[in-house]
Amino acid sequence: MASITSVRLARLLGSWRHGGPAYAELAERLRLLSVDGRLPDRTRLPAERDLALTLGLSRTTVAAAYGRLRDLGALTSVRGSGSYVVLPGGPALPAPDASGILDLTKAAMPAAGVVEECYGRAAAQIGAELGGSGYELLGLPRLRVAVAEHFTRRGAATDPEQVLITTGVQHGLSLIARALVAPGDRAAVEQPTYPHAMDTLLAAKARLVGIPVSPGGWDLEAAEEAFAAASPTVAYVMPDFQNPTGASLAPEGRERLARLAERHGTLLVADETTALLDIRRGPLAPLAAWSPTSVTLGGLSKLAWGGLRIGWIRAPRSVLARLAQARPALDLGTPVFEQLVAAELLAREDLLVAERRTRLAAGLDTLTGALAEGFPEWRFTQPDGGMAVWADCSPLSSSRLVVAAHARGVALTAGPRFGFDGAFEHRLRLPFTASPEELADAVAALRAASTSRSAGPADAPLITV
Ligand SMILES: Cc1ncc(COP(=O)(O)O)c(C=O)c1O
């Protein structure tokens, strides 16, 4: 079972004091860390004495905080072994979609209009596949061709042999971490970044190094320093409509990052999950056009539908061979039917891009309009695309706001979930993927939450996508 040191926990806690009783505020923040996944279920907390010393508190205060968590069923103590966080309510299953909560922890949209038709077309084709074994470790040849064409069209010439089909982008990321990252390796990630990428790299026992990014763009000077100090084995980046900042890396930045990685022998892993969610930026060639040795992750979860679970990896052949070799320990291929649907969808890429643009532009307009009215003191940059606004909600604490908003029927992810070491306490990711009505309701609920004292967080774990 995992444990956490008092120093690391102190970093995760960030700025948690807000003028109330210390034991209650400490308990509340620990509970949020557990619910949003920063403290995985069954993590052993530091001994009361250690944590008290690190936080500059009395042991009685920490004991009272742990006691409160025990009363809430959020902590269990085993004599002689320590105290472990547990998700309240026992089984750690995420809340189902229809739990009556407006779930803005997921930046995701309902299926695009053309998806159902493509399922129908695939149904007419599946018969022809049934004579084969169905085990396609690399993916259905027809889909590999369609994905290669997708890259070539966008400016990175690609051969189908450079493509491996995965069961969503997250699966591709797990495969990359398993095959290409060894325990103790340094892995550079943007700060802030997509939380499950951090989780995946940490699960592979990588040590994370930050590349600062904000809605204004990447701090490539800092990246140069970080690479020089750590020579990371891999660098995971989102060059297009970065999640959560919405920033895009300009062509000169792509060139600079590619050369930086080359100098340090770092494998660049570009996640293009959000690359085609363009509202008003215009197309940019994939990072792979500047860095032929890089690996690219992509998929249809945001462009078409998350329920399809189709993604892909584009990589140099030698890297792809390593990934193919490592895959059977994880799974033996992606469902054939969904691959047929995906090939149909990729033939309609322009239609999908246009549909998403219309929906996202309307969501962005509503959200930023409501925010400007409800929170004139918040600062944010209008992204050119992507799925979310990364708002600066100073002086409010985003962790507290998230707790209070949940009590008003809106689930959001607090800023620190996108960083490591407790950063981003004054940042809130606000997805604009929901309908305009839902977004207006969400901002109204946030407004009410911002003037209230907080209530307890959700009992079910939150999955941030
Ligand atoms: C940047 C990024 N990568 C990967 C994923 C997961 O994608 P998939 O649903 O294809 O596994 C998400 C989902 O939100 C994401 O935002």
Describe what this molecule looks like in 3D.
It is a single chain. This protein is of the alpha/beta class. It has three domains: 6-85, Winged helix-like DNA-binding domain superfamily/Winged helix DNA-binding domain (Arc Repressor Mutant, subunit A), CATH 1.10.10.10; 102-111 and 351-450, Aspartate Aminotransferase, domain 1, CATH 3.90.1150; 115-347, Aspartate Aminotransferase, domain 2 (3-Layer(aba) Sandwich), CATH 3.40.640. 40% of the residues lie in helices and 13% in strands. The chain contains 15 helices and 15 strands. The chain has helices at residues 6-13, 22-35, 48-55, 59-71, 115-125, 141-153, 169-180, 195-203, 220-230, 251-264, 317-326, 336-346, 349-374, 398-407, 436-450; strands at 44-45, 75-78, 82-85, 102-103, 163-166, 186-191, 207-214, 217-218, 234-237, 267-271, 295-299, 311-314, 388-392, 410-411, 427-431. The strands form four sheets. Strands 5-12-11-10-9-6-7-8 form an eight-stranded mixed beta sheet, sandwiched between helices. Helix 10 (251-264) links the parallel strand 9 (234-237) and strand 10 (267-271). Helix 13 (349-374) runs parallel beside helix 15 and helix 14 crosses helix 15 (436-450). The structure holds pyridoxal-5'-phosphate. Pyridoxal-5'-phosphate binds at residues 107, 168-170, 194, 238, 243, 271, 273-274, 299, 301, 306, 311, 465.
